Structures are given as C-alpha cells and as structure tokens.
TrEMBL record:
Gene of this entry: LOC100778043
GO biological process: regulation of gene expression
InterPro entries assigned: PRIN2 (IPR039349)
Descriptive protein name: Protein PLASTID REDOX INSENSITIVE 2, chloroplastic
Length: 163
C-alpha cells in the first residue's frame, strides 16, 4: 500500500500479466474509511469496500518500435555529434548502436504507450557503454532519456491516430 499526505485516492500498481502488458489499479478511498495515523503528514487507508478500476496498457507494436528506433538512432547521432566537445571520437557509431539496440529491445518488449516509458533502459545504456569501455556513457544515456521523454509518447499518439 502506498502512503500519501491526506488524499482520497490510493494508487496500487499490480501486473495483470507478465510484461509486455501492465495494469494500473486505482482504489478510491472515500469515507467511511479507517485511517491509522503514522505521522502528522501521512496516513494509511484501509480499502475494504473500495471500488476497483483497472487500466490495461496495450501491448507493444513492432512496427512502431522499428519506426521509433530508426528515428531515435538518427536523432541521437545528430545530438551527440553536434556537441562542441569531441567526447566520442571514432566511437560515436558504436555508442549510438549500443543505445539504439537497448532502446529497440525496450520498445519491442515493454513500451505500450504513454505511461509505460521506464528509466531502466537508459540506465542499462549507461551500464552497457561503460562495460564496453565506450566514451561518454553518462552523456549518451542522458541524451537518450531526454529525447525519449520529449518524443516517444507524442510519437505513439500520432502513430495510433493514423490507425
């Protein structure tokens, strides 16, 4: 159970089935409820007679994953090559390839639309780049994350509006 400052809604995440789909379960807690004060700033809400609403995210779309991976690869290469500092040298292509591979795997296996963008693939990028002793691991992972935050959910919406 999650603890919040006083609020009428408690959110519980629970998988409906193993990835690639996720489910978000919302429990509404309105009086009467039992609250056990833990501190002046938080409370626990018993959800004995609360209605449950479930939102199931769609499965990943392979065609979208391919399209978005290509766009990501082009944009990441552009971003990392435009920086004034030649941090990547001759390894720029290898850095972009590692990031694109990890991003592609995430899009194919786990991304199901807005609300499902996770931070793990970007930390995986940094770890993989460091493990391969490629330069600029933190910079490349950060640029990848920022790009994804700015474009992936929007691109998903556009992609699905065409269907």
């Amino acid at each position: 159970m999650l603890l919040f400052t006083p609020s009428p809604v408690t959110v519980t995440l629970s998988p409906r089935k193993p990835f690639p789909s996720n489910a978000l379960t919302l429990h509404h807690c309105f009086p009467p409820f039992s609250a056990k004060p833990i501190s002046r700033n938080s409370f626990t809400c018993a959800l004995t007679h609360s209605p449950t609403h479930t939102h199931v995210y769609p499965d990943p779309v392979p065609e979208f994953a391919e399209h978005e991976t290509h766009k990501f690869k082009v944009e990441l290469f552009r971003k990392l090559s435009e920086d004034d500092v030649d941090e990547f040298g001759d390894d720029l292509d290898a850095v972009v390839a590692v990031c694109a591979q990890i991003f592609s795997e995430f899009l194919h296996k786990e991304y199901g639309g807005p609300g499902t963008l996770l931070v793990e693939p970007f930390t995986d990028m940094m770890v993989a780049l460091k493990k391969k002793k490629l330069p600029g691991a933190a910079l490349a992972a950060r640029a990848s994350l920022l790009w994804a935050q700015n474009f992936v959910d929007k691109d998903w919406e556009v992609w699905n509006s065409k269907i």
